[in-house]
């Protein structure tokens, strides 16, 4: 399963004592080869955690032989000491595994602004290296959890090759404390340029369109590693579709486990003049706190959808907007449409369709409702 | 008090039965003259309620003799019928008061997407016209409340002239259902151009910098009426300062009574390259749900401030950011600063200072925390 589903990978997840509750907090993924091509995408936040800054440099080389991940601390906003911690982590793994330090990526997740306990992390890396195995994927997926209630894995079986992955967090635009980390592995034989192309295309319409709470993390990282162990090079379209499928599956798992959520909200914007317009409108709807509260209360309050759309710069005329909630067109022509009492909102998934009536482009954004549990969870995190 | 503090104004607030709980829901403000200059600012939302579209046209004439306001329904997204309702309301007041219909402004607040019960509103207008008096300001302030727990008024005494006002709602960027309506009145003798200049300058740094929940209403309206009853024409600077003072007072009252809030958050951005940068950064901090939850929990989680700043386009270097919470510089140089345990957050007001260390401009944004009560209130509004 997970990051060890593909041949040529080992992994481990162990408890190093970074988390005070004793839960697993250090994960390791090792590309045992024969090849070690890699690609990565990172948070667009200008305040980037030390491990993001480090791993961005590593990925420029196009080769990643191992990834060390820790939960229990984001190592963001930690200054030169934080960068030193990331470097020491990579150095430790490199020395133990016989890799070059510039081929070791590092990911961290947890509270911002706290230094990592290196006296616990470095021995943890040593134990993870020793514990790694071809069946260690699930343990690794467990060790990267923060506020996740379940670990997230996905596997795609290609024609003679496999793609697997693990994820934690609540979205690319995720809590600054429960950042999204994803590691994907494949035994297909592809170079870093091919991996990069497939990964960027996939994240653009999956992780980038998940918006749990509008907050963008300092640590978000998605890595794709290829061992070439099968010596199979799939056609680009086939591989790209596999990456998209696995990313979509993991993204949906993230939304389904977002902090305090009780509803998964699928927002489809159609009839947009451009895809950018569709994304802007979808994201703005996704971030409207009043709507998120209303949906939590199973209230088909379409007025809040319209007032959200009205704050965007997308091309539309207010009197031509149509909005459906769970298939009922409660707003037609910018005004009262079908009876709101017809909308059944009891299920976990809520579908909103906003028709801008301007063009032929569309986009889907996934979001969550806003709940008292979200408030509780995020008002008590650090204290 | 309120809109009848200045000479030349009468007002009333009555219960017309629009609100099902029988609370007052129709207010009237009449400029008895001798003059009737006016200015107004309106929501920037592209989805504008019928009364906003109507009143914008009225204000183009520069003359307003009366304002009819109703709570219990926003008359937004109500199509041609909604516009007809607004027009009929203005017509009714104009006929009863002997005004031209084009001199009657209309404001509505309440749920979006529901037609107003004209069989109740029009008789209500008739009763309000009959009930109006020079001491009716407070009743008017009460009648425009929606989820407000208290009515809001403010008065400024000039040299031989007075400025008074009333407000309801939670901010210019306010719930789409508890929209901000403000009526200011003065007995100074000023033309509409002078009123407009003072009002725009005042709202730019007061109502426009209040951000309770990031949601922009379809109905926000701020009107300033001058009767000229004192025949005093104050110097522009003096009058502008009075308008700014009253707007600031009312804006603070709105924040202090925002839905479900337990903390008022004063965000000051200093060291910005431009005022626009300062406002963008302040607003982005103000809208970060994770930070709003943390502050509710009295957790000085400055990492969430930095991760919010990192999503803006303002000029800054991450490693030069400083952040203080209630006077304690918990973040220095983008990293760990003074001990977070030193921050006392028990009071209602929380002060955040973000120093971008780039230039000499600054701005203050007022916001609220995010609470379980906000979720409860807004998940049960319509149902």
Could you characterize the architecture of this molecule?
The structure is a homodimer of 383-residue chains. Chain A is α+β, with helices and mostly antiparallel strands and 383 residues long. Chain A has two domains: 2-256, L-amino peptidase D-ALA esterase/amidase, CATH 3.60.70.12; 264-379, Ubiquitin-like (UB roll) (Roll), CATH 3.10.20.340. Helix content of chain A is 32%, strand content 23%. In chain A, the strands form three sheets. In chain A, strands 9-16-11-15-12-13-14 form a seven-stranded mixed β-sheet, sandwiched between helices. In chain A, strands 3-10-8-7-6 form a five-stranded mixed β-sheet, with helices on both faces. In chain A, strands 1-2-4-5 form a four-stranded mixed β-sheet. In chain A, a hairpin with a 2-residue loop joins strand 13 (328-332) and strand 14 (335-336). In chain A, helix 5 crosses helix 6 (236-256) and helix 7 packs across helix 9. The first copy, chain A, is globular, with a radius of gyration of 21 Å. At the A-B interface, helix 2, helix 8, helix 9, strand 14 and helix 10 of A face helix 2, helix 8, helix 9, strand 14 and helix 10 of B. Chains A, B: Heterotetramer of two alpha and two beta chains.
Provide the descriptors you would attach to this structure in a database record.
homodimer, 383 residues, alpha+beta, L-amino peptidase D-ALA esterase/amidase, Ubiquitin-like (UB roll), 2 domains, seven-stranded mixed β-sheet, five-stranded mixed β-sheet, ArgJ_beta_C (chains A, B), autocatalytic cleavage (chains A, B), transferase (chains A, B)
């Amino acid at each position: 399963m997970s990051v060890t589903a593909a041949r040529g990978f080992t992994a481990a997840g162990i408890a190093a004592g970074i988390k005070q509750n004793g839960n697993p907090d250090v994960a390791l993924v090792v590309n045992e080869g024969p090849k070690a091509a890699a690609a990565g995408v990172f948070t667009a936040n200008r305040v980037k955690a030390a491990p993001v800054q480090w791993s961005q440099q590593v990925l420029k080389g196009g080769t990643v032989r191992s990834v060390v991940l820790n939960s229990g601390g984001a190592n963001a906003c930690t200054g030169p000491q934080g960068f030193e911690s990331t470097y020491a982590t990579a150095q430790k793994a490199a020395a133990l595994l016989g890799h070059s330090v510039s081929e070791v990526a590092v990911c961290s997740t947890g509270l911002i602004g706290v230094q990592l306990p290196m006296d616990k992390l470095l021995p943890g890396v040593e134990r993870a290296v020793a514990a790694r195995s071809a069946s260690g994927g699930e343990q690794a997926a467990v060790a990267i959890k923060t506020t996740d209630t379940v670990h997230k894995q996905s596997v795609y079986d290609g024609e003679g090759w496999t793609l697997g992955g693990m994820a934690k967090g609540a979205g690319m635009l995720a809590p600054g404390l429960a950042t999204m980390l994803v590691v994907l592995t494949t035994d297909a034989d592809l170079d870093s340029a091919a991996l990069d192309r497939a990964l960027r295309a996939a994240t653009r319409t999956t992780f980038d369109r998940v918006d749990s709470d509008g907050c963008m993390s300092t640590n978000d990282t998605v890595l794709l590693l290829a061992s070439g162990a099968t010596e199979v090079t799939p056609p680009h379209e086939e591989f790209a579709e596999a990456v998209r499928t696995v990313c979509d599956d993991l993204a949906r798992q993230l939304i389904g486990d977002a902090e305090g959520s009780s509803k998964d909200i699928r927002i489809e914007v159609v009839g947009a003049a451009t895809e950018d317009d569709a994304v802007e409108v979808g994201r703005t709807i996704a971030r409207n706190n009043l709507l998120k509260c209303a949906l939590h209360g199973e209230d088909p309050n379409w007025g809040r959808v319209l007032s959200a759309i009205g704050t965007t710069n997308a091309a539309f005329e207010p009197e031509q907007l149509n909005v459906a909630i769970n298939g009922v067109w409660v707003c037609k022509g910018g005004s009262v449409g079908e009876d709101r009492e017809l909308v059944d909102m009891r299920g976990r998934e809520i579908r909103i369709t906003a028709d801008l009536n301007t063009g032929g482009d569309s986009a889907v954004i996934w979001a969550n409702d806003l709940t008292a549990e979200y408030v509780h969870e995020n008002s008590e995190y650090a204290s």
